[in-house]
Amino acid sequence: MADHLDISDQEFAAVSRLDAAARYRHFLKRVADWREAWGLYEDGWMSLHDDEQRLLLPLWPARRYAEAYRAEEWGQRAEVRAIPLVELLEDWLPGLKRDGRGIAVFPVSTAKESIHPSLDDFERELREELRQYG
């Protein structure tokens, strides 16, 4: 899978400034197109908490965004790893549902600055986006 480190500085800055809802839409389009999401790993996948202290798996549409978050929030201790889209849909989402966890889509500095969709809504919206990419 491609790293997509070729995101221009202008795109990176512009997308990072979008509000959470617009970043969520961007995430769906990019992940459907590029067929991967990105997370942070250090002795297990790193998590955030929502206001109810539920564990959330943070996800980004490209390596560069995950690296920027890692640098700001966790230093360099976590490894940025790709999650193939088929694994996200077939393995991760059912596991997250089973474990009572959620997702934080495209945080830029804190979990509060990301969308935390229900896993059912997320899966439905991502599959709808996938249909547009064939």
Detailed description of the structure:
With about 130 residues, the chain is of the alpha+beta class. It has one domain (about 10-134): Trna Endonuclease, Chain: A, domain 1 (3-Layer(aba) Sandwich). It is about 50% helix and about 15% strand. It is built from five helices and five strands. A three-stranded mixed sheet has the order 2-3-5. Helix 2 crosses helix 5 (about 120-134).
Secondary-structure element string: HHEEEHEHEH
CATH C-level class is Alpha Beta
Envelope shape: globular
Structural class by secondary-structure content: alpha+beta
Radius of gyration computed on alpha carbons = 14 Å
CATH superfamily: Uncharacterised protein PF11572, DUF3234
| CATH fold-level label | Trna Endonuclease, Chain: A, domain 1
Mind describing the biggest β-sheet?
A: 3 strands, mixed
Structure at a glance:
By secondary structure, the chain is an alpha+beta fold. The chain has helices at 9-17, 20-34, 63-74, 85-99, 119-133, and strands at 36-41, 48-49, 55-59, 79-84, 102-105.
